[in-house]
Amino acid sequence: MEPPPLLLSLLLILCFSNTTFSVSPPVVLSPTPSPTSSPSRPNSSSSTSPSSPSSSSSSALDPKQLRALQSLNIPTSKDPCTQPTLLQNNITRCDSSKPFRHLLSLRLSNCSDDVALSFTALKSLSTLQSLQFVNCPIAPIRFPADLVASLRSFTCISSLRKLTGVWLARLQNLTDLTVSNVQVNASGTFVILGNLKKLKSVTISHANLTGSVPKHLNLNLTHVDFSGNRLKGRIPSSINMLENLESLNLSSNGLVGEIPTSFGDLISLRNLSLASNSLSGSVPESMSAIPGLVHVDLSSNQLNGTIPKYFSEMKSLKHLNLANNNFHGIMPFNASFIKRLVVFKVGGNTNLCYNHSVLSSKLKLGIAPCDKHGLPLSPPPAKEDSSEDDTSDSDYADNDGDDSAHKEHHHGPSKVVLGVAIGLSSIVFLIVFLVLLSKWCG
Ligand SMILES: *[C@@H]1O[C@H](CO)[C@@H](O)[C@H](O)[C@H]1NC(C)=O
Ligand SMILES: *[C@@H]1O[C@H](CO)[C@@H](O)[C@H](O)[C@H]1NC(C)=O
Ligand SMILES: *[C@@H]1O[C@H](CO)[C@@H](O)[C@H](O)[C@H]1NC(C)=O
Ligand SMILES: *[C@@H]1O[C@H](CO)[C@@H](O)[C@H](O)[C@H]1NC(C)=O
Ligand SMILES: *[C@@H]1O[C@H](CO)[C@@H](O)[C@H](O)[C@H]1NC(C)=O
Ligand SMILES: *[C@@H]1O[C@H](CO)[C@@H](O)[C@H](O)[C@H]1NC(C)=O
Ligand SMILES: *[C@@H]1O[C@H](CO)[C@@H](O)[C@H](O)[C@H]1NC(C)=O
Ligand SMILES: *[C@@H]1O[C@H](CO)[C@@H](O)[C@H](O)[C@H]1NC(C)=O
Ligand SMILES: *[C@@H]1O[C@H](CO)[C@@H](O)[C@H](O)[C@H]1NC(C)=O
Ligand SMILES: *[C@@H]1O[C@H](CO)[C@@H](O)[C@H](O)[C@H]1NC(C)=O
Ligand SMILES: *[C@@H]1O[C@H](CO)[C@@H](O)[C@H](O)[C@H]1NC(C)=O
Ligand SMILES: *[C@@H]1O[C@H](CO)[C@@H](O)[C@H](O)[C@H]1NC(C)=O
Description:
This protein is α/β, with parallel strands linked by helices. The chain is built from ten helices and 21 strands. The site of one 2-acetamido-2-deoxy-beta-D-glucopyranose has 4 residues, from helix 8. InterPro entries: Leu-rich_rpt, LRR_dom_sf, RLP_Defense. It holds the Pfam family LRR_8.
């Protein structure tokens, strides 16, 4: 008995299509990475001439400043004023003065170890209004007075090894100060803030800063971030004077005491984090008067009392984290409010519970349902419980009727793939079996 030719050709086709399958992935590879990476590579072969004759209308960078950039290891084969994209990592901005242009802003990032700041170079760069160091662990030096007078914005992220309060306090014309991931040795924040009277935005984070939150802050401040330091003491009630304050981040410090009752005077506030301190007492009623709150993080403190219902009336609120505190009583929010938020966390409050005739257990809030007295029911030995007691990672977007089901889609593709795989392999198996059978027969 001959093997059926149809089956043989099927086998052949399968064989060939198999090989093409295994070859196809490298063929599919498109040459995407190379065009994006090549323009960012500096042309190191020529590093002197500031020529860019193409744009004859604008003048070239001041040769003194060009030499200063070269001494900082910044490639200047192309004029950084006319072609700033060539210096992607070291962004520059220039004025348009004649005969030579001058640098207004400079960012040094990812410096190599052999780069050193020199007083002469910085003196040549005294037109800078903005100076940024990002990942440049070079030694700091005393800035020339001209540069100090000119600087309006100074950023130091994981750079300059170590700074002191006195060093920063000299930069008196700053409106923006950002220092992060750098040790700042200062006898309190006032050394810095008391001298920088023009500041509008200040970030000194993850800097091991000690002392307390100063009682007298510049009234024009819009952003204050002292997160990740070792600040101690209470939040001064005089903070209510900062009526322009839009964001306040005092998270991850050692602050104690209550949130000042005057907090509601901060009428411009949008982002607030007091997370990971040792604050106690209740959330002040006055916060209901802050109209534009977007982001509220009070997690990981010892706050107590009931959770204020007024949060649900805040139209812009997107992020509410009250987890890991000592709140008690019935959680006052309904499902439509909770689903409106991007982040909502209340887990880790052992005396807090939810009304199960208002909220479904599928919301996975990380707290127990209430009994009829408004006290948490002791957790039932049900299977749901295991998923409920991992507190903070609430994915409450589960199905509760209307806007559900996007989780279900995950099962779709994998089931189809599995089905196809099983189908294909059983066809192959059948063919092999038939071929063997026919050989054995014939
Ligand atoms: C680099 O500079 C050399 C000499 O000036 C020039 O011939 C070459 O085209 C340049 N390469 C790039 C990528 O700009
Ligand atoms: C600095 O280098 C890191 C990798 O070492 C890279 O991920 C990052 O994008 C670089 N930053 C800049 C601003 O070039
Ligand atoms: C950016 O500046 C730093 C410090 O001067 C230098 O080490 C680095 O090579 C520069 N990177 C680029 C891409 O120009
Ligand atoms: C701040 O800037 C003004 C005007 O630009 C200048 O007169 C003053 O000396 C500067 N202050 C410091 C401390 O450099
Ligand atoms: C802060 O202090 C700790 C312990 O003394 C140290 O490990 C950490 O590196 C310091 N942080 C900075 C930014 O220097
Ligand atoms: C900070 O400065 C004081 C004196 O100004 C010094 O005693 C102390 O050791 C310094 N701390 C650090 C971490 O450098
Ligand atoms: C606050 O800003 C206003 C205008 O922006 C300015 O006139 C005033 O001097 C500033 N006050 C302080 C204390 O910096
Ligand atoms: C508030 O925080 C969000 C990120 O959570 C950020 O995009 C926004 O710019 C911040 N707004 C202010 C005023 O700081
Ligand atoms: C506060 O700072 C921390 C750490 O620096 C950051 O993770 C968090 O997003 C900030 N929160 C707000 C509301 O700005
Ligand atoms: C809340 O905490 C404050 C300060 O620790 C305390 O005085 C008060 O008795 C507590 N209230 C409740 C209801 O636990
Ligand atoms: C949920 O609470 C909000 C705010 O309290 C309220 O406006 C809304 O009507 C409530 N929705 C339902 C379905 O009860
Ligand atoms: C839970 O909500 C229902 C319906 O709104 C209400 O009748 C009941 O009293 C609430 N339970 C508690 C313990 O507050």
